[in-house]
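Troubleshooting: if your tokenizer reports a length mismatch, compare your output against this known-good record of 125 residues.
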Amino acid sequence: MTTKPQLKLGSHLVPGLAAVALFVVMAAAFLTASFPQVQGFPADANITASIGYAMFNLDFGDVPSESFLVAFIVIAVALDVALDGTILLARRESGTAEGGLISDGGRRLKQTLTGSETDETEGEN
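Known-good structure output:
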């Protein structure tokens, strides 16, 4: 015999009501928002050049726009950090005789667990 699920009025009630209230506020904001009329570009405007000028906050483009210099710099810094991280992860160890990679694919752990001193992999440089 199955029973009806019962509502637990414990510590889950307040966060649930907060989530429902936030949903109502966000739905009201989106439904009552008004957007301006969509406008096209002029027929003789160079869109690509205007995007490039807007990215560097220059006022030379045919299409007026806002500056994207801060977004460009943030993206550049994020890509630089990612590149530095990949270089750090791919760097070779300085203390080993072979100059092996930092990540050895588990060979050192396998040698420790099996007690073998020789590397049994063939065909590697």
